[in-house]
């Protein structure tokens, strides 16, 4: 597991050059509007998205993508990529996943030892969402699905906490308390994602969708989404 773990830490690292730090996914508008204003409300916002949005859609979709890559089911990979892109509620969210997918694909190509057939498949797909490129790396590096899903959730939560630190603003200890609380919930969220039937997938979160749309015209902002 040691090599797979090292590769997983690389994928989940904030140092991964895909530009994740530049996005807040609507959190910045929630702060501007006053819904998120302190540590407690930041935890509530991020925690609700973890449970009701990522945990019920992106996480199970990512698990299926990893399995599809591992099983060489390229038709399923394309179908899941299209589903993910169609699920983006705003222009910003769609642009975000495409930019990060493009950046990760470019990185994988520049690493020099990534499987050529996987790169060719991704190149042929055209618009590639971030989960599709990320899951391709996880599968190529033999990362177990449960570990991949947990790391995906953690990387997202860490980025959200950092956005809250900058924009609320919050102190470093508050950010670590938020991550501690979110981390305690992740094992159950990941386990549910691994077994959730596709018919039960749902990213319905109206408040999040509204925040994402309103952020597109927010007058003063730090983040791209």
Describe the protein in words:
- The chain is mostly helical and 225 residues long.
- The chain has one domain (22-215): Urease accessory protein UreF (Orthogonal Bundle), CATH 1.10.4190.10.
- Helix content is 72%, strand content 0%.
- The protein has helices spanning 2-12, 27-33, 39-70, 74-86, 91-111, 116-125, 130-140, 145-167, 172-195, 206-215.
- Helix 3 (39-70) crosses helix 7 (130-140), helix 3 (39-70) runs antiparallel to helix 8 and helix 8 (145-167) runs antiparallel to helix 9 (172-195).
- The N and C termini lie far apart (36 Å).
Task: Provide a compact summary of the structure.
This protein is mainly alpha-helical. It has one domain: Urease accessory protein UreF. Helix content is 72%, strand content 0%.
What is the CATH homologous superfamily assignment?
A: Urease accessory protein UreF
Q: Count the beta strands.
A: 0
Query: Could you spell the SSE succession in H and E letters?
Result: HHHHHHHHHH
| Major sheet | none
Rg result: 17 Å
CATH architectural name: Orthogonal Bundle
Overall tally of domains: 1
* Total number of helices: 10
The percentage helix is over 70%
Instruction: Estimate what percentage of residues fall within beta strands.
Output: under 5%
Large-scale geometry = globular
What's the mean pLDDT score?
Answer: 96
What would the CATH topology be?
Urease accessory protein UreF
What is the CATH first-level class name?
A: Mainly Alpha
Distance between the termini: 36 Å
Poorly predicted residue ranges: none
């Amino acid at each position: 597991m040691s090599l797979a773990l090292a590769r997983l830490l690389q994928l989940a690292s904030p140092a991964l050059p895909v530009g994740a730090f530049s996005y807040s996914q609507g959190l910045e508008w929630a702060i501007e509007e006053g819904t998120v204003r302190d540590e407690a409300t930041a935890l509530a916002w991020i925690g609700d998205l973890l449970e009701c949005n990522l945990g019920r859609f992106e996480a199970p979709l990512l698990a299926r993508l990893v399995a599809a890559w591992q099983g060489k089911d390229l038709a399923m990979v394309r179908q899941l990529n299209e589903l993910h892109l169609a699920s983006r509620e705003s222009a910003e969210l769609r642009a975000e996943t495409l930019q990060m997918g493009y950046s990760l694909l470019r990185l994988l190509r520049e690493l020099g030892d990534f499987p050529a057939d996987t790169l060719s498949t991704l190149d042929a797909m055209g618009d590639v969402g971030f989960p599709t490129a990320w899951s391709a790396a996880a599968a190529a590096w033999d990362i177990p699905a449960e570990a991949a899903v947990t790391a995906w959730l953690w990387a997202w939560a860490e980025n959200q906490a950092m956005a809250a630190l900058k924009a609320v603003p919050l102190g470093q200890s508050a950010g670590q308390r938020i991550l501690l609380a979110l981390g305690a919930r992740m094992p159950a969220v990941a386990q549910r994602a691994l077994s959730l039937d596709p018919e039960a997938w749902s990213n319905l979160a109206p408040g999040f969708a509204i925040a994402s749309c309103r952020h597109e015209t927010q007058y003063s902002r730090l983040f791209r989404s």
